[in-house]
Queue: 2 jobs
Job 1
Amino acid sequence: MSDKAKITFGEKTCELPVILGTEEERAFDISKLRGDTGLITLDIGFKNTGSTQSKITFLDGEKGILRYRGYSIEDLAEKSTFLEVAHLLIHGELPSAKVFEDFSKDITTHTLIHEDMKRFYEAYPSKAHPMGILASMVSAMSTFYPGSQDPNREAESINRTIIRLLAKIPTISAWAYKNSVGHPVVYPRNSYSYVQNFVNMMFSLPTEDYEPDPLVVDALDKLLILHADHEQNCSAAAVRIAGSSRCNLYSAISTGVTALWGPLHGGANQAVIEMLDAIHADGGGPDKWIEKAKDKDDEFRLMGFGHRVYKNFDPRAKIIKKACDGVLSALGVTDPVLDIARHLEEVALRDDYFIERNLYPNVDFYSGIIYRALGIPTDMFTVMFALGRLPGWIAQWKEMIENKEPIGRPRQIYTGAPHRPYVPLSKR
Ligand code: SDX
């Protein structure tokens, strides 16, 4: 197959090199296009446009494949731990026992947030959405660590910022939840593992002895692995383009939190549960809602369905769906919306509208059911997504910086008013 593409426009012809990926994906590099032909490309939503070459995550949307640094998501979800996957994504390799011990210890000893940051929580309204708190607290971290401003500083300073983010964001997140329910915050404990610490900060109370349930810890650890990265999704692209201005890493990650919040992206997990609860309240029948989702005049969408890349089952949805039963029965929890979700999926996947558009359940369709069974409140679901995606965002930012990629600055086609003279107010 040719290693060049040719574009002819009028009298001009431009030969463009074809880039070949590890799994035989192909792209033609248009870096010279405008210079050779005067043309730019237009691809609203970047549905056909690659923004970078990356070694972090591989997706095959047709085959439903997801790999982090070459390891399949099925293997990692079953055999690894979230912190180990975080190291893999950020540093490119599964850590040796010694490296992992140092990495974990480094994180454990940075879990406290500056006591001055605690005062921020007194200022937020008690019903503040925890994603709004998370985005602002992560950005505020840059004010407490002025030395982290320059992302081109020596590796040690960058690594310390990475450790601080991984260590402190679970604390910030759990304290946002405690703020919302008016409970006293719970400090991290060095004797706990990463996810155990988060569960303890979320659910323990000064009025009783509490030990995080190992089943809850294991289920959350798996969910965090499944959310850890997903190549150039909306929020990862936001982190990369924000970071390309060479702002500090805290600010770039805060951009990712903000982008993830949208209901078309990470906010979908909260929207799915709200949708399933509405269907349950409405009597539970899926048919009316399937019709609403198909109706172009109705803005309702089947939340948790569809994906820009997966035109087959999202492999993460398969794993979460399978885990649903195990987690709910082990916790002795029944949730009527699980049957509604299953029935909705069954009816949708038999319907031509969904089949023709390759709309399958995505990672958000079942995740909320498990989060709820674990005691996580609905408006914390997207915070859980952010906790999982944090190492992926960091890995994407780090790769962009290490590759010295230029500032991201897309072009446009202008379709506004042609040149026109100014008309003074008295004459308008
Ligand atoms: C995540 O990119 C990632 O990797 C994201 C993510 C990650 O890990 O980072 O995987 C996480 O964000 C998962 C997606 C969560 N969002 C939702 O579940 C929201 C519901 N889904 C849709 O809004 C939609 O499917 C998107 C946003 C996920 C994808 O949108 P696209 O690729 O822009 O597709 P589209 O909106 O152009 O839809 C194509 C067609 C349209 O119909 P036609 O105009 O062709 O007639 O499919 C229809 C859409 O109306 N469609 C849906 C639908 N999703 C798409 N119709 C009903 N219900 C839906 N859920």
Job 2
Amino acid sequence: MANSDPSDPDFLARTESYAVAATEIAAVLQGEANLMARMATVASMLADRFAHYFWAGFYCVDAQKTDELVIGPYQGSLGCLRIAFNRGVCGAAALRRETIIVPDVDAFPGHIACDDRSRSEIVVPVFDASGRLIAVLDIDAIEPAAFNQSDARGLEAIVRQVFAA
Ligand code: SME
């Protein structure tokens, strides 16, 4: 996996970049409670900052069908509209309530190819302040093995700060 050594300068730079992104996102969202505005801002500011992102956005737990995810705010090419909890990386992350890093999408059983240029991805569950799963944050890359623990820790911290604080 690219730059997966925590002492690697690129790993440290990425960790630092997530910390800066977290501060900037907090500043922009100060006083804004609307969930859609918060998700759209996170997707935009992350996609703009990180060159290894190809697609970045949210799949939200559907209010009517609570075992299904429906597309939320995103940056990138057309995303699939709905994903059941038992399908794809997004569904698996929602079901397991944990972050999943997929270095090679072809090796993940049931991966959903919304855009077949995607080669690797990371999906982070999003909880509200009461611990209820409200969405997943899905980031895809054209490069294989583009994500590592610096992305996982950085994204988990941002979704905690923005949606569970
Ligand atoms: N690849 C995801 C589906 C979402 S798109 O890539 C935007 C998955 O397998 O859940």
